[in-house]
Structures are given as structure tokens and as C-alpha cells.
Amino acid sequence: MLEEQIHPYPNEQARPYDEICASTGYGEPFATDTFRKAATPAVTTEFRDQRTAAHFQQPGAVLMVYGLDPLRTNADKLFNLMCLYGNVARIKFLKSKEGTAMVQMGDSVAVERCVQNLNNVAVGLTGAAPLVHNHNNTNEQQQNENNAKEHKLQLAFSKQPYLSEVTNPYPLPDKSPSYKEYITNKNNRFMNPAMASKNRIQPPSKILHFFNTPPQVTEVELIQVFRDYDVIPPKAVKLFPMKSERSSSGLLEFENTTEAVAAVMACNHAAIESPGTKFPFIMKLCFSSSRSMTIRNGDNNSNGAADKQEH
């Protein structure tokens, strides 16, 4: 059975996960030049990295993801979605089956969460299609399928216990590698019980919760982020009253769930510059339990209970 959902609001009971890896695991960041923290601190040793990796080596933690947009999807975009349901260890796209990837999660519980929440979910366009000419894909019908406005994900458990390291991955249409490791990626949100307890487990919805954005960010600036990533921007933005001067948070409403899922894949962990700061803020996105943009009693302080990250 999956664990009960965890809510980010102070007036709702938060429950930590029992089956979460216990190490902190700071290492190579999602994008080295966009983090407000330094890369790996001096105290992080090879032993610590090995200990972190050991927590991800649990059998039964690999799943298959079918129906991905073969032109626009890459490992980072898939990570941006899967990390909402558990730690992501490795992602490998299959050259023999276009639009298919294998994902090794931190444990089997995370795999169950992904399958339960993401199977049969439709995804909109996650950005502009790269300019590529695939000699192996000259069939007009296949080309039309690749350029479809949405794709439906199909998730299934894999019989493979682990994903082996790929030393020479092939390039995806956007030239990014077809295999990437995320074991020590600091954008994983379940690295220890304290971090895990701050996450919510919600199925995809048309309303997103955003946090870890600049304190003085405006609605116009937030909408522009999505335009910069070539995805449909939210139709409405609601900024929560700030609990502190460190960061801001709020809600984003999209026309439908399909657009919201595409926005998460493209813009989760997007860098937002802020005047007077040396490094940009890394915006975090997750699906909201709210069904409307009206703030309920007690929700004004939701940025204090969501998964926060120092920057």
C-alpha cells in the first residue's frame, strides 16, 4: 500500500515517510551554474557518496515509462516530474524504442507512487521541438505522432532490478545524453525523513504550488519564465503573503492538467534571477491539493511547510 498523502499546510497533519533513504547526499547539482549553494562542500567525501549510492540500490525500484514525446523529452524533464514522488537515481532512454525510458527510483515505494499517480496522464508540449533530421524516421505518420500536441504516459514496473551505468550514451534529439545519474542530485526531495516530511504526494492537477522564488518576484516575471521555456504559461498566478524575506511562494493555475504537467517537466527547477543576489533562485514546483485559486484559512503560510531549500 502507498503511504498516506502529506500536506504542506500547517493546519494539516504532516507524516514522514518510513521508507526513505537517510543520507543527505549533496553532490553534483542539476545545473552546476544555477545553484545558490556551492557545488560539493569539502566535507563531502567519496565514502559519503558511496553511502548515498547504497541507499538507491534497492531491488524492485525500476519502472518503465512509455509514451514520452520523442522529440522534446530528455532526462532532466523526466526527472522534474518523477522527483515529485520519490528520489530519482538514474534515467535511461531506450534507443530501440522511441519515446520510452527506464527510471530507477530510490525504492519500490517511490515506484508505486509514480505508477499510481502518473499512469495514463496526458502531457502537453514541454517546449519547442529541436531541429533534427532523423533518417530512420521518414514515415509521415510517425512524424505526425512525434509532433502531437500531447502524449499519454504509460508506466509499468520493470523486472530489471537496477539500471547499469551507461558509459557512452547516445544523444537525444536535443543533443542531451540519453542516460543520466541523479543519485547525488540535490533536487531530489526525499533524501532524508526531514526533507520527505515536507513533500506532498498529489496526483497531477491544473493548479501548481510554486516556492523558492525571489522574495519580490511578480506575476509578470513568473509568467515570463514559462514563456522562456516555450511552454503554455499559467492563466492565473496567486502570490502568498510572505512569511519571511527569504523567498516567495504561491499558486499557478493552468487551463487543464495536461498543460500543468508539461509546465512541471519543463520549468521545475528553473533558475530565476534576482537583483542584488549572486546566484539565481531555483524555482520548485509541485501539484497542489487546491482545487481553486481561493486561499483557504491557514494556507497563507504554506510556504513555510512546503519543501524549502536554502539558497
From TrEMBL:
Which keywords has UniProt assigned to this entry?
A: RNA-binding
Q: Which organism is it from?
A: Exocentrus adspersus
MF terms from GO for this chain are:
RNA binding
Q: What is this protein called?
A: RRM domain-containing protein
A Pfam family the protein falls into? RRM_10
Q: Does the entry feature the keyword Ligase, yes or no?
A: no
Name all RRM domain ranges.
Answer: 62-133
